[in-house]
Design a protein that fits this description.
Elements: E1 16-19, H1 26-43, E2 49-52, H2 63-71, E3 79-82, H3 86-94, H4 102-120, H5 147-153, H6 156-164, E4 168-170, E5 174-177, H7 195-200, E6 211-212, E7 218-223, E8 234-235, E9 239-241, H8 246-249, E10 253-257, E11 264-267
Parallel strand pairs: 1-2, 2-3, 5-7, 7-9
Antiparallel strand pairs: 1-10, 4-5, 6-7, 8-9, 10-11
């Protein structure tokens, strides 16, 4: 059996690199990984960790290729930790047989970027006589898609990978999730937090205080999910948001934690959006 892709707790503080929402942009992911490797070499770092903050699929044109790339763990010499985002949750929920409210769930998935993912897996849109869709804008009506075909189009290795992902990762100093956590109770206390919070919460700017864990110690919260308006990462003493809207800006933010000087962020060069790629499916 393949070992888990994630670790729930790190026992010592290594240098941690982290990458925000990728959203089907293999080009940006590979560029970020190359810059991480060069940065670690330049600074003499070893035993580094890379934390991927979720949302590997949807919106962008290369979702299957991104998943293949992550599954293959290309960063030799680095520990790679992949967390689960709300877009992974949405896709998996679309494929659960007989799930209550699934029609609405599928509509939400299609509305919020799932159509490029379905197309990149080679699925086709079912045009119906009463469909008024024009100008190649695909329908978000789930009834216009063949979900049995969709289920068979996604490799089992991709489903297994997505189902294996954890929602959180705690180093003892930093607490990583896709979307964040409530600033009520401890960040790891199930009385106040759950997987839905870790993958979906928004509006963290209203939480001004620090975050603590059940051990009573402060944590810096590191997350993605909420694209910043200026295309730059948000960094404060208590919280770091690495979703800089890379799928649209063409530049991926990379966070660096564990240095004596404090948090650092660098960015990949801007890359034009690649066309939809079905060649590797």
């Amino acid at each position: 059996m393949r070992p888990p892709f994630f670790h729930l707790r790190d026992t010592h503080m290594n240098i941690h690199y982290s990458i925000g929402d990728i959203h089907g942009r293999l080009d940006l992911l590979q560029a970020a990984q190359g810059m991480i490797r060069r940065d670690a070499k330049k600074n003499g770092y070893s035993d580094c960790v890379i934390v991927y903050l979720g949302d590997y699929i949807d919106r962008g044109p290369q979702s299957p290729q991104v998943l293949d790339h992550l599954i293959n763990k290309p960063m030799n010499g680095f520990t790679e930790i992949a967390l689960r985002g709300n877009h992974e949750d949405m896709l998996l929920d679309c494929l659960v047989p007989g799930l209550i409210g699934q029609h609405e769930q599928r509509e939400m998935f299609l509305t919020y970027g799932g159509i490029p993912t379905l197309l990149s897996y080679g699925n086709t849109y079912l045009t119906q006589k009463n469909d008024d869709t024009k100008n190649n804008v695909f329908s978000v009506n789930p009834d216009n898609w063949n979900w049995e075909q969709i289920e068979y189009s996604i490799p089992s290795s991709h489903i297994d990978f997505l189902e294996s992902l954890s929602y959180k990762y705690d180093t003892g100093e930093h607490f990583y999730t896709h979307a964040g956590a409530r600033n009520i109770g401890a960040v790891d206390d199930p009385m106040f937090q759950d997987n839905n919070v870790y993958s979906w919460i928004r509006g963290l700017e209203r939480y001004k205080g620090s975050y603590k864990a059940m051990d009573g110690k402060h944590r810096t919260l590191v997350h993605g999910h909420c694209p910043t308006k200026d295309g730059k990462a948000f960094v404060s003493d208590h919280r770091i948001n690495l979703d800089n809207g890379a799928v649209h800006t063409g530049s991926q933010a990379v966070g660096v934690l564990g240095e004596d000087a404090g948090p650092r962020v660098f960015y990949t060069p801007v890359f034009p959006r690649p066309p939809l790629d079905k060649s590797k499916v």
